[in-house]
Amino acid sequence: MNILTAALAFITAICVLVTIHEYGHFWVARQMGVKILRFSVGFGRPLWKRRLGRDQTELVVAAVPLGGYVKMLDEREGEVPAAELHRAFNRQPLLHRTLIVLAGPVANFAFALLAYTVVYVLGVEGIKPVVGEVRPGSPAAQAGLQNKDEITAIDGEATPTWGNVIEIALPRVLEHSALHMRVRDAAGREQLRVLPLDGLRIDDITRGDLFRKLGFDQFQPSYTPVIQKVLAGGAAERAGLRAGDRLIKLDDQPLHNSAQFIDAVAARPDTPLTLGIERGGKQMTITVTPQSVADGDKGHVGRINAVIAVPEEARGEMRRLLAVERYGVIGAIRKAWDRSWQISWLTLKLMASMIKREASLDNISGPISIAQYAGRSLSLGAARFLEFMGFVSISLFVLNMLPVPLLDGGHLMYYLIEFVGRRPLPESVQAAGQQVGLILLLMLMGLAFYNDILRLWS
Questions:
Q1: Which of 93, 281, 347, 350 has the fewest Cβ atoms nearer than 10 Å?
Q2: Is 160 left (phi over 0), alpha (psi -120 to 50) or beta?
Q3: Would you give the DSSP letter of residue 424?
Q4: C-alpha span between 181 and 199 (Å, rounded)
Q5: Over the range 226-240, which residues count as b (16 or more CB within 10 Å of their CB) and which as e?
Q6: Selected catalytic residue, list 22, 150, 167, 387
Q7: Inter-residue contact 53 to 30 (CB < 8 Å)
Q8: Half-sphere exposure of residue 79, counting CA atoms within 13 Å on the CB side?
Q9: Continuous H helices in 72-220
């Protein structure tokens, strides 16, 4: 992935979402008669600024695109002329101040609704949830799942793609419950299967290990994988593998697809593998020792530095496994609403799980990881990028609603205390809370950057 593409995608996404958030504050404040002094996208040195309107509000684009702010007329930040006291934020009724603060997170939630609605109208592409190999004695085998079973619904909700299966599985894993699945077997018969999720953690999903822990693979057509390209200096080149080699066997066992080969290589770093290959119509045996490479939470995995291709004859069957989740406008709005609330709730549950040490702190990502996700989603098309922006917008909604001083949720907490106690908290108490909030946010940012650096190092 091009680093410049990732950076531009990240900056575009963050600037758009920050502008939407701050415009929520700005618009409601204007409706309440509050004077706006500055609307800034980004922090630090201004790169561009202009004054507009009768209030000469200063519009600013600043150098650090990791946030923004709306500066309002306020007696706590400077002297206010007597003629404009009624337009100062701190002089507004409690309800008005609450609505102004609440408007930013609500604007992010509204954008996510719009983004997901558009995405579901355009259609979300994915792979049909067809079960592959089921390992004997695994939870999947005990539930009665079999090779080529297609999961058509879970708890009455249709599952056209594996993405839908994972969406439904997420809350069930957090609740340690089970998946009540309707499956269609290879003969077309519909059956019910109950797959328990006991012993699974949310980390199993975030690390991509859900299906492996449950004991089955995603179905792939059977074909002979082919070496498309051998990278210089890697284990494949040292072993003598060449482009065009057909991979027939691994340790005297037939190879059925590239995923089987890649998984075997990853599982055996620094361990010799005996490959049966076909080259130019002749069969031969080659021994290759995968190089051990650090791979984040998975520890060390094997790599041979070769590109594995899918033969043309297998691609037609793969295309038949493609599916599109698409709705009309009303259906898309309903789906967008459900998904937005689900992501919000799951984000809170994940935070609680991390606090209780039920989930790893590695799940916290910083700007570097977000930039990588932004670049990847953009490379998959406009709909995927819009879906990514919707997810980040929901994350901003949840984060800003947390009752932490400095965040919008912290201000709302102060206003709740003011409503209950019939008077505002002393400014000294609010200032102390701001310092605590700043320390907490700096710690969170430090952890996020630390995780990002570890991922890059891996």
A1: 281
A2: alpha
A3: P
A4: 19
A5: bbeebeeebbbbebe
A6: 22
A7: no
A8: 2
A9: 94-122, 139-143, 162-175, 202-206, 210-214
- Give 250's pLDDT tier (boundaries 50, 70, 90): confident
Q: Alpha carbon of 291 to those of 55, 299, 304: distances in Å?
A: 65, 13, 6
Question: Which structural domains are found in the chain, ordered by start?
Answer: 96-123+328-458 (no CATH), 127-219 (2.30.42.10), 226-313 (2.30.42.10)
Q: String of b and e for 318-339 (b: at least 16 CB within 10 Å)?
A: eeebebebebeeeebbebbeeb
List, for residues 204-213, the tens digit of each pLDDT value: 777 777 888 8
Tokens of 242: 């060449």
0.85 exceeded by pTM? no
* Residue found under tokens 């605590």: 436
Nearest in space to 192 (alpha carbons), one of 132, 138, 151, 161:
151
34 φ, ψ (degrees, to nearest 5): -80, 140
Q: Catalytic residue at 75? A: no
Residues 408 and 400: beta-carbon distance below 8 Å: yes
Q: Are 73 and 34 in contact (CB under 8 A)?
A: yes
Tokens of 290: 């995968």
Q: Which two tokens stand for residue 14?
A: 């963050």
Give yes or no for a contact between 286 and 248, defined as CB atoms under 8 angstroms apart. no
Distance separating alpha carbons of residues 97 and 91, to the nearest angstrom? 9
The residue type of 153 is A
pLDDT tens by residue, 88-123:
998 899 999 999 999 999 999 999 999 999 999 999
Kindly state the tokens that stand for 331: 């259906």
